[in-house]
Amino acid sequence: METLSQNRQDVVRCSKIVLRLMNLELRENSNDELARGDVLKSVQCYMHEAGASEEE
């Protein structure tokens, strides 16, 4: 039973790492797109309208 529980914890931990890395990659790509003059995404429009920062 411990092995199954440990495997699940490992899967969750690894999944969180992958998602964090993907989020970083998407953020970098998004900034590059804006620098080229591409259209803002809906989240970026909301952030602009609400005066929110990326940290929020």
UniProtKB/TrEMBL annotation:
Q: Which residues cross the membrane?
A: none
Q: Its Gene Ontology molecular function terms? A: magnesium ion binding; terpene synthase activity
SUPFAM superfamilies xrefs? Terpenoid synthases
List, for all copies, the residue spans of the domain called Terpene synthase metal-binding: 5-56
Mind telling me what this protein is named? (rape) hypothetical protein
Organism source for this protein? Brassica napus (Rape)
Name of the gene encoding the protein in the UniProt record = BnaC02g34480D
